[in-house]
Amino acid sequence: MNPELTVQGALRDLTAQLRESGVPSPEVDARELVQHALKLGRSGLLTQAGRKLSGEEQRVLGELARRRAVREPLQHLLGEVEWAGLRLKVSPAALVPRFETELLLTLALADLEAVPAPRVLDVGTGTGALALGVKQARPDAQVTASDLSAEALDLARQNAALSGLDVVFVQADLLGSLSGPYDLLLSNPPYLPDADQLQVQPEVGFDPPLALYGGPDGLALARRLAAGAPGVLAPGGVMWLELDPRNVGVLAAELVAQGWAAQVHPDLTGRPRCVSARRV
């Protein structure tokens, strides 16, 4: 313990430690960890810059620093994220909700604007982000969320309770025993090609592989989901999927060949990211 260590000094030392460890954004991560460990708001970093840290504060911050230096995701250390206006608990049980998935939520909700009391299914719910995002935006919706992982479903239920949102959670392998009919099926399924395991960022190693990799081209789960979707969609129902820019066009073309009206949608950087599909 360093009895002379101040808030400003801790921030400086942690930034240097994370930079040396190869963390991509050492300044931002150090600031977030110092605020979290010391229970400071943004202004507290300035107003308490010269305050000396207690031994316990140094211990807590040191443990967080150690874990981030070995590239444990920042969100896991903080314990929660803000996503689409929701506060969500996160853990290694499920993927941390990505910004790109907010686009999927926004696009899918637009398809529900003219549908009263829509019936919605979120497949592979993980933290429950998409299901809870729909329920928050459309309180009249009947929302069901499925996941194969019991641990992920427990996390999703915690997030539903945290937000006070009523969603039905079901343990199932993709569509499993679900029968619908649903007006909207949406999913952010595992979509990375298996070979990506050899080249991902170290942080990805803390995510559950079950939620990441989708076979040789990343589409194994998406194809299974599309094959079962006609059996659970209501007439006029729509399926929305978030996929990898490398394979979203491939699936869209396959869906068209199978009798779907499918369209690829770009993300905010212009890369193809989501596909919507209706039976014709």
From TrEMBL:
**Sample GO molecular function, one term:** peptide chain release factor N(5)-glutamine methyltransferase activity
Q: What class of enzyme is it?
A: transferase
What reaction(s) does this enzyme catalyze? L-glutaminyl-[peptide chain release factor] + S-adenosyl-L-methionine = N(5)-methyl-L-glutaminyl-[peptide chain release factor] + S-adenosyl-L-homocysteine + H(+)
Q: Where is the Methyltransferase small domain?
A: 110-194
Keywords tagged on the record: Methyltransferase, S-adenosyl-L-methionine, Transferase
The GO biological-process annotations, alphabetized, read as: methylation
Binding-site list for substrate: N188, P189, P190, Y191
Which intervals of the chain form a coiled coil? none
Pfam families of this UniProt entry?
MTS (PF05175), PrmC_N (PF17827)
What is this enzyme's EC?
2.1.1.297
Release factor glutamine methyltransferase N-terminal domain location: 10-79
Which positions in this protein are listed as binding S-adenosyl-L-methionine? G124, T125, G126, T127, G128, D147, N188
Q: Report the SUPFAM superfamilies cross-referenced here.
A: S-adenosyl-L-methionine-dependent methyltransferases
Give the family from UniProt.
Answer: Belongs to the protein N5-glutamine methyltransferase family. PrmC subfamily.
This chain's function reads:
Methylates the class 1 translation termination release factors RF1/PrfA and RF2/PrfB on the glutamine residue of the universally conserved GGQ motif.
Name of the featured protein = Release factor glutamine methyltransferase
